[in-house]
Amino acid sequence: MESRGLLYIPSVQLQHGGLYVCMVKNEHGLKTSSLNVTILYKPRDTIMTISVNNKTVSGFPVEVTKGDEITLSCMSDGRPSPVLEWVNPSNGNNIEIGPGFLRIPYITSEHQGIYICRATNQYGSDEKDVDIRVKGVKGSVAQF
């Protein structure tokens, strides 16, 4: 809605972001002014990709065998860009954690549990989780 040079957006949505140009014209000429609008929002659409021995897997829970290599990759949409962190119950050794990934080169029963990727910015957070279950060499699920 426009009124006397005022643009009013009652409920801002992501699609309202972009370049806005105001043009004023009278008998003395044309004047333009522009403003680039960025819409800020909390993290959303967080996804996690799981690969076991360099092959992407799906289905939950994710069952792996002792000795497998597992990589969890996480991405999320948000503005400003969210900070990604891993929350996991593992007391196991040999876990590599970096921006958007968690890698266990040799998984053992100590690594079994629920791993959570949390995406956070100043407007909120979103998360995805995966249940990792480690089977023993004979194919049975590890017992605690």
Defining key terms:
single chain, 144 residues, mainly beta, four-stranded mixed sheet
Describe the structure.
This protein has 144 residues and is an all-beta fold. 0% of the residues lie in helices and 58% in strands. It has strands at residues 2-3, 6-7, 18-26, 29-37, 41-52, 55-57, 62-65, 70-79, 83-87, 96-98, 101-104, 113-121, 124-135. A hairpin with a 2-residue loop joins strand 1 (2-3) and strand 2 (6-7). Residues 137-144 have low confidence and may be disordered.
Q: What is the 3D form?
A: rod-shaped
Q: Would you list the SSEs in sequence order as H and E? A: EEEEEEEEEEEEE
Number of strands: 13
Main beta sheet: strand number and arrangement? 5 strands, antiparallel
Q: List segments where confidence is low: pLDDT < 50 over at least 5 consecutive residues.
A: 137-144
CA-to-CA gap between the ends?
63 Å
Specify the oligomeric state.
single chain
- The average pLDDT score comes to 88
Strand coverage percent: over 45%
Walk across the major sheet and give the strand order: 6-5-8-11-10
Helical residues, percent: under 10%
Radius of gyration: 24 Å
DSSP helix count?
0
